[in-house]
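Structure in, sequence out. Go:
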């Protein structure tokens, strides 16, 4: 993306809840980390084409005995502040006791320390977190149920039409050349450490349903 724009990228880490305000205030130019595109956020910022589709899922220790999302009723569940994970969970399990953290690393660490029975994040991030544990990752289980479907996209300030066009054109070019498929297989596919199923989405739309 930066190459297409002729710029050198400068990366800035942000708390999840601070992402959209930082973009709106001009402190960053693009939001590029697991940002869910939904109708509510369209009132605040614009989005590039959907470049990944995932879903919120639940990670637990196998020793917890939790087998289904419904088992979380009345239980303490950990997640990040300001994301879509908390409302998604509460729609599915209204009686869950949600504890939020400033970033995903803190929430995942809290699960390891036994400060909650479960940890909610998008599926791709959960697989990545478990993979980082090495052999100890075998002590954890990602529940099979999706809490929702999450289309991810780059976030752009309102009115930045030239930047949005450059982003969308770059993504369409990656799709047309076959590089989008190659990138997916490299980072997410059967030969990667995450071993996701085949890609079922394309870089072609910036429309969402909800």
């Amino acid at each position: 993306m930066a190459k297409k724009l002729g710029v050198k990228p400068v990366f800035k880490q942000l708390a999840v809840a601070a992402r959209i305000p930082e973009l709106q205030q001009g402190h960053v130019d693009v939001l590029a980390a697991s940002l869910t595109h939904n109708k509510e956020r369209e009132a605040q910022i614009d989005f590039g084409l959907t470049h990944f589709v995932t879903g919120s899922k639940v990670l637990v220790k196998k020793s917890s005995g939790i087998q289904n999302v419904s088992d979380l009723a009345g239980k303490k569940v950990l997640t990040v502040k300001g994301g879509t994970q908390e409302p998604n969970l509460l729609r599915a399990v209204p009686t869950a006791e949600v504890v939020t953290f400033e970033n995903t690393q803190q929430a995942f660490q809290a699960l390891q320390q036994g400060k909650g029975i479960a940890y909610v994040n998008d599926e791709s991030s959960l697989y990545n977190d478990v993979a980082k544990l090495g052999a100890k990752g075998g002590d954890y289980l990602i529940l099979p149920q999706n809490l929702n479907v999450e289309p991810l996209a780059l976030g752009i300030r309102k009115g930045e039409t030239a930047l949005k066009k450059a982003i969308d054109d770059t993504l369409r070019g990656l799709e047309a050349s076959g590089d989008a498929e190659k990138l997916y297989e490299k980072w997410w596919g059967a030969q990667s450490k995450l071993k996701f199923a085949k890609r079922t989405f394309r870089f072609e739309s910036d429309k969402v349903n909800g």
